[in-house]
Design goal:
One of its GO terms (molecular function) is phosphotransferase activity, alcohol group as acceptor. It is a single chain. The protein is of the alpha/beta class. It contains 14 helices and twelve strands. It folds into two domains: 190 residues, Nucleotidyltransferase, domain 5 (2-Layer Sandwich); 181 residues, ATPase, nucleotide binding domain (Nucleotidyltransferase, domain 5, 2-Layer Sandwich), CATH 3.30.420.40. Strands 1, 2, 3, 4, 5, 6 and 12 form a seven-stranded mixed β-sheet that branches. Helix 1 packs across helix 2. The longest helix is centred in the N-terminal third of the chain and has 27 residues.
């Protein structure tokens, strides 16, 4: 059903909820309004603690599910007010929620995203789609990344072989060959901003490294870089996916503490080296693809000037152009939220939302669970798309 949809997502950094209103037809998506709803620090820390196994984590998860349901509903309310748009003009909300765990490669593959959709529906009176990942996992896939299908819809080019690079807490790439008869590829490359954000929070008491300025004051420690890149994930071929439960301060310190026994390295040098880990792991995976003409970047990492400079330098060695998705007409801050609005439309239309060539699923899947308000039948009949 063509019309207006809302997309919601909280990434691995868990600092805010990205919310968008978009207009979608079969040909294109247009961003109408956007809003970022801050997640209180107390809840952010609670999320991070729950990412790692420990005591009372089930009780904490249930509390967070409720708290995030309220926050996601508030994000919708603020977004609608900012846009001067009524609930009646929205067909559905696509809510990714907040990932707590993602274990696609275990004996019992699983993933968990929370932010109770029952609360979102109750507070907004809008049909809400959530739980997008588990259908893909049930079909033998990784459950991630899911945005490549949207990237294909929005960004595929007839003449250029493109990579869409999203640098959030975790970095992921989508390969869009110009030959549309060829399957697209996509996977998580490893850490994006998540570890460097944790590092600067610990040592500078800042939420993130603005423009990569602190990193720029340091140097890349090649020995530490190579040690960090020895993690088995960087050697795996796609389809693959990862998360903060793998790449975090615990992982960094397990390598760094041993390294510091025989080597001096300043905290800013560690930060710069973490930028290099992100850049090198991304470029290594891009270079594994057959032919790439251009790379377009979205997500918070696009504002890290130090990281972007490293990426451009490494990619230029293979004559690959690197720019922001802004040059393609979509604000880099909101691409993932737009993707989940689009996935909500796919669910409403009972159309597949995954790419088996990306996730490894055995077949295309209809993604997401649909939660409807009590006046569901009249809601669909009275949607105002004017």
């Amino acid at each position: 059903m063509d019309g207006n949809y809302i997309g919601l997502i909280s990434g691995t950094s868990a600092d805010s909820i990205d919310a968008v209103i978009v207009s979608i037809t079969n040909q294109q998506l247009v961003l109408l309004e956007s809003y970022s709803h801050v997640i209180p620090t107390t809840i952010q820390k609670k999320i991070w603690q729950t990412n790692i196994s420990g005591n009372h984590e089930l009780k904490t998860m249930l509390e967070l599910d409720y708290q995030l349901g309220i926050l996601f509903a508030q994000a919708v309310e603020h977004l609608l007010k900012k846009a001067s748009v009524s609930t009646q003009s929205i067909i559905a909300i696509g809510s990714h929620g907040q990932t707590l765990r993602h274990y696609p490669d275990t004996s019992f593959p699983s993933t968990l995203q929370i932010a109770d959709a029952n609360i979102i529906v109750e507070k907004t009176n809008i049909t809400t789609i959530c739980d997008f990942r588990r259908a893909d996992i049930a079909a033998g896939g990784q459950g991630a990344p899911l945005v490549p299908a949207f990237h294909q819809f929005q960004f595929q080019h007839d003449d250029k072989n493109r990579v869409i690079l999203n640098i959030g807490g975790i970095a992921n790439i989508t390969y869009l060959p110009s030959d549309k008869s060829k399957p697209i590829q996509g996977f998580d490359t490893g850490p994006g901003n998540c570890v460097m954000d944790e590092w600067i929070q610990q040592h500078q008491n800042k939420a993130y490294d603005n423009a990569g300025a602190w990193a720029k004051s340091g140097i890349i420690d090649t020995k530490l870089l190579n040690l960090l890149l020895e993690h088995h994930y960087f050697k795996e071929a796609g389809p693959k996916s990862t998360g903060r439960d793998i790449f975090n301060l615990t992982w960094l310190n397990s390598v760094l503490n041993n390294y510091r026994e025989n080597n001096f390295i300043s905290n800013e040098d560690v930060q710069m080296t973490l930028n290099a880990v992100t850049a090198q792991s991304i470029v290594n995976d891009i270079n594994s693809l057959k032919v790439v003409d251009e790379v377009f970047v979205c997500g918070g990492g696009v504002y890290n000037l130090t990281l972007m400079a490293l990426l451009k330098e490494l990619l230029s060695k293979n004559n690959i152009k690197c720019d922001s998705v802004n040059s393609l007409g979509l604000n880099p801050d909101w691409v993932e939220a737009c993707a989940f609005a689009w996935l909500a439309k796919q669910r409403i239309e009972n159309q597949a939302g995954n790419c088996p060539s990306v996730t490894g699923a055995s077949h295309p899947c209809i993604l997401g669970a649909e939660y409807n308000p009590s006046n569901y039948s009249s809601t669909l009949a009275t949607v105002d798309n004017s």
